[in-house]
Amino acid sequence: MRRSTALRHAATTTVLVGLAATGCGTGAADSPGDTGQTSQAAQPDAIDTAATVDVRLVLEPTSLDIAGTAGAALDQILLDNIYQGLLTRDEDNKVRPSLATSFKESPDGLTYTFRLAKNAAFHDGTKVTAADAVWSLRQVTAAGSTNPDAAALASVKSVTAADDHTVVVTLAHRDTGFTWRLTGRAGIVFKRGTDFSSLAGKENGTGPFKLGGWKRGSSITFVRNDAYWGKKAKVAKVVFHYIKDDNAANNAQRTGQTDIETGANATLLQPFTDNPDHTVLRGDTTDKFTLALNNAEGPTKDVRVRRAVRRAVDKAGLIKILGGAGRPVGGPIPPSDPGYEDLTSIDAYDPAGAKKLLRQAGYGDGLKLTVQIPTIYPAEIGDYLASQLKQVGIQLTVRPVEFQTWLDAVYTKHDYQLSVVDHAEARDLNNFANPDYYFGYDNADVRTWYAAARTAEGDGARDALLKKAARQVSEDAAADWLFVSQTLTVVRDGVTGVPRNFTSNRYRLADLAVAKK
């Protein structure tokens, strides 16, 4: 069976360690959560096209094989910059053309025709043709595909080339999310015949940047592709510096070692606010910090226990201690996704109600649980959860684990009771329509509604079904959603075109520019 697309996002999207402590609001204020702005300076008339931009990121990829290695750290830096798909997403998370300059959907929603850019080329100089796109998509949809995003194209029936620059995709059934899913790694166009195993430490994409070098454990460098087929990058080089510690990242930004600090910690922003040498950008994310509850076994198999856990945690209090950022969501769909509905009234903070549910479940004398939390998240999350659950009679043992340990024990083996992870990918309700996913949640109605949403004839019908499914997921307490975060980015004066929104999923460099001194 194909793996869910969520592995690369849910399991590895802590690309911005400061995510859990980012802020919202406008301008500097007493509360760190009121820091940041949604606009930045316009590109200056005179730019330095020989400039290098240094960017702080957190989670370094383990391989560059985006066709076979899970991890949003790969998507974040490789999508749009090194590799391109038929389609892409813009700053507002909308579907836009990429290698396909246009596309047309048939009236019955079963056939999509893509027109490829005629001058596109791979980094080795080979021209891109429809044969490359057909081959690439067929690798994803082939039986036994190891592509981490294989499930994204499950609706594809056939892929053919009408001519050298026209790709025709036929679906087995209408799929309202098909073009969206093509914007991810499933839609990447590789050179026909590529040996994916050869990509582990190199690349041959079509994007505006090439790989310049990789100092493992430290940094990855991209250099401008001067032979790029489209609008060329405005800077000569970008260096991604992998700095996990927030204080070290702040120091790097203050001392000029980096020009851009992503995932800035809201509580450490004082050196940058009201500082003419820096701008703090506030951006939206689809990062859902999720308290996973094992639905398949152990005490949390009982819905009353899961509901009690949810009622025991005051989400507003957690958001406050993490710097004031984020918003409660109450369900699996964030505000920027289709089908969003405020579900925070379901199992809202109610310690007395939590105790009552625990008594009904047979745990009136107390319950012991363990939560596994990757060490890349703020320790305050585990401390807060333990304190909250203690008040309702649950003794919570917090077990910090390395991320690879989390992947093996929790994601792969489902060996856990509670776990905290950032599910950053957009439109990932499918996780709850998959009984084999690590949540262990199985509801036939949710599976039916989600499947119907994918084949709905219009966005309105789709969204109504997604809302219905998401509400059921929340009412079943399939998980607890701690908050959806916003992210803060610190930018040195003179640097423009900096990505602001949804930067956990991709960090597009095409518009970066540096003012000429």
Number of helices: 12
Distance between the ends: 56 Å
- Low-pLDDT runs: 1-30
> Any idea what the shape is?
globular
How is the main sheet built?
10 strands, mixed
Percent of sequence in beta strands: 15-25%
Question: What structural class should be given to the helix and strand makeup?
Answer: alpha+beta
Strand order, sheet with most strands: 8-9-10-1-11-16-12-15-13-14
What radius of gyration results from the CA coordinates?
23 Å
The total beta strand count reads 18
Order of helices and strands: HEHEEEEHEEHEEEHEEHHHEHEHEHHEEE
Mean pLDDT reading: 91
Report helical residue fraction: 10-25%
Quick overview of this protein structure:
One of its GO terms (cellular component) is ATP-binding cassette (ABC) transporter complex. The chain is α+β, with helices and mostly antiparallel strands and 517 residues long.
Structure report:
- The chain is of the alpha+beta class and 517 residues long.
- It has helices spanning 6-10, 72-78, 130-141, 178-182, 246-254, 303-312, 315-321, 351-360, 379-390, 403-412, 444-454, 459-475, and strands at 52-57, 87-89, 95-97, 100-105, 111-116, 156-163, 166-171, 209-215, 219-224, 237-242, 260-261, 278-293, 367-374, 394-401, 418-423, 479-492, 495-496, 513-514.
- A hairpin with a 3-residue loop joins strand 8 and strand 9 (219-224).
- Helix 6 packs antiparallel against helix 8.
- The N and C termini lie far apart (56 Å).
